[in-house]
């Protein structure tokens, strides 16, 4: 089974996967990468109005095969005093 | 398969029960004379399957086990981790059909005690029956804490809480000390127990290591910042109802 490495970043704490996991297919690795994103968001939000969470898949040669991004974009629709 | 009754092995049970209650000499003797047959099981092997109707309980003498249930697409939920002294399928004494499975995590030595003997023991010594009841109530208290974790805590809080819980359980049966304990649980097990993806579990462990809160090398967990882990996970050990701690 192929080995893939899933690197993640919540905008503050990037984690490089040095160990990797064996997956039946690259699609299975993609599912694993996507599953991590809501967990990462739950851990960090609420926190500001802009945040990007990413999970990417590398193969054994170091080629990045896939990147999934989950973005938070918060926006007030009424004036807010910033004082 | 060694099958002689083994009084030495039953000491494990006495030790565990004494961590949550006090036993008289006579009660201790009665437990030690229970018939028990021991078996050594390989890692990742089922001890009792979901749907089984067991006629014996299994006492863990060595190694780690877990209770779990399988869902569709190979998804697994682990409900609890068990260490020496625990009888994870004690409920089969009264609930005749298993509604989940019990399996090994590491290689494990287990002692099988016939239900009939457990029933006789608690009829002859009602106080032992009460202690076993107390043990199942503590078990339920642990489930409540896990429910709070999965429902309301961050991944960081859940993992930190489990570290504190398992450390104190191991310490109570003299299998841990100095904030250092065996930790044979893989990242996948941890995620399956706490409802977290494997990748995120890895992130949190790296963060904990990076902040110098824990170290996890080989199969040993060292909690380097006990107070900080307790605070971050809102860990209050009251629910474990450990006698030694209360004294």
UniProtKB/TrEMBL annotation, chain A:
<feature type="domain" description="DUF6894">
    <location>
        <begin position="3"/>
        <end position="71"/>
    </location>
</feature>
<dbReference type="Pfam" id="PF21834">
    <property type="entry name" value="DUF6894"/>
</dbReference>
<dbReference type="InterPro" id="IPR054189">
    <property type="entry name" value="DUF6894"/>
</dbReference>
<protein>
    <recommendedName>
        <fullName>DUF6894 domain-containing protein</fullName>
    </recommendedName>
</protein>
UniProtKB/TrEMBL annotation, chain B:
<dbReference type="InterPro" id="IPR014710">
    <property type="entry name" value="RmlC-like_jellyroll"/>
</dbReference>
<keyword id="KW-0805">Transcription regulation</keyword>
<keyword id="KW-0238">DNA-binding</keyword>
<dbReference type="InterPro" id="IPR018490">
    <property type="entry name" value="cNMP-bd_dom_sf"/>
</dbReference>
<dbReference type="InterPro" id="IPR000595">
    <property type="entry name" value="cNMP-bd_dom"/>
</dbReference>
<dbReference type="GO" id="GO:0006355">
    <property type="term" value="P:regulation of DNA-templated transcription"/>
</dbReference>
<dbReference type="GO" id="GO:0003677">
    <property type="term" value="F:DNA binding"/>
</dbReference>
<dbReference type="InterPro" id="IPR012318">
    <property type="entry name" value="HTH_CRP"/>
</dbReference>
<feature type="domain" description="HTH crp-type">
    <location>
        <begin position="153"/>
        <end position="227"/>
    </location>
</feature>
<dbReference type="InterPro" id="IPR036388">
    <property type="entry name" value="WH-like_DNA-bd_sf"/>
</dbReference>
<protein>
    <submittedName>
        <fullName>Crp/Fnr family transcriptional regulator</fullName>
    </submittedName>
</protein>
<keyword id="KW-0804">Transcription</keyword>
<dbReference type="Pfam" id="PF13545">
    <property type="entry name" value="HTH_Crp_2"/>
</dbReference>
<dbReference type="InterPro" id="IPR036390">
    <property type="entry name" value="WH_DNA-bd_sf"/>
</dbReference>
<dbReference type="Pfam" id="PF00027">
    <property type="entry name" value="cNMP_binding"/>
</dbReference>
